[in-house]
TrEMBL record:
GO terms for molecular function: sequence-specific DNA binding. It comes from Erythranthe guttata. PROSITE patterns: DOG1 (PS51806). GO terms for biological process: DNA-templated transcription. It comes from the Eukaryota. The keyword Coiled coil applies. This is DOG1 domain-containing protein. Residues 1-129 form the DOG1 domain. Residues 94-128 form a coiled coil.
């Protein structure tokens, strides 16, 4: 719901900017300044919500449920690797036991193997293109 509402508001901001351009009233400095301030505030709202979400559940930010599998694949192509989430845990959670750290490292190794396989598949697809 937050993200959906935020996108609707984003569209309204876009329509306001397009209306300003279409009106030819780009000289109206006050209108321009208000639109800029509104857009900056709107993006700050998104960043604040995302920060709150990270504190509640970082995995929702690393693998957003509102994204399709295709969109999540773009995260992968863009450099995000699932094992990063586990590295963040090891590096930032101070009260992990040695057993927990070992188990996380095992999961990281398993994930690394799967990541390597997927990367090889991406490479093959890219070579065919």
């Amino acid at each position: 719901p937050f993200f959906s509402c935020w996108l609707i508001d984003q569209d309204h901001h876009l329509q306001d900017l397009l209306q300003l351009i279409a009106s030819g009233d780009g000289e109206n400095e006050q209108w321009c300044n208000n639109l800029i301030k509104d857009n900056i505030a709107h993006h700050k709202q998104y960043i604040q919500a995302k920060t709150t979400l990270v504190r509640q559940n970082v995995f929702l930010v690393l693998a957003p449920t509102w994204m399709s599998s295709f969109e999540r694949a773009h995260l992968w192509i863009g450099g995000f690797r699932p094992r990063l989430a586990f590295r963040l845990i090891i590096n930032n959670v101070l009260d992990l036991t040695e057993d927990q750290i070992q188990r996380i490292n095992i999961v990281i190794e398993d994930i690394k193997e799967e990541e390597d396989e997927l990367t090889d598949e991406f490479d093959k697809v890219q070579e065919r293109m």
